[in-house]
Write a structure and sequence with these properties.
The chain has 55 residues and is mainly alpha-helical. It has helices at 3-27, 33-54. The chain is built from two helices and no strands.
Length: 55
């Protein structure tokens, strides 16, 4: 897999995670734990993409 393909895949996964986190935030106002878990996973994916970009 080429570096550009990997970056595109990681960016797509980040955007999907962002949308899922947003839906969880709106739909579950009493329980923020699922929102936080998905948000942290999405941020970890974005950090991985950032690292791939520079190495």
């Amino acid at each position: 897999m080429k570096r550009k393909d990997l970056r595109n895949l990681l960016n797509t996964l980040f955007l999907v995670g962002f949308v899922v986190a947003l839906i969880l935030y709106i739909s579950m106002p009493d329980n923020r734990t699922p929102f936080l878990v998905v948000s942290f996973i999405a941020m970890a994916i974005k950090i991985a993409e950032y690292i791939v970009r520079f190495f």
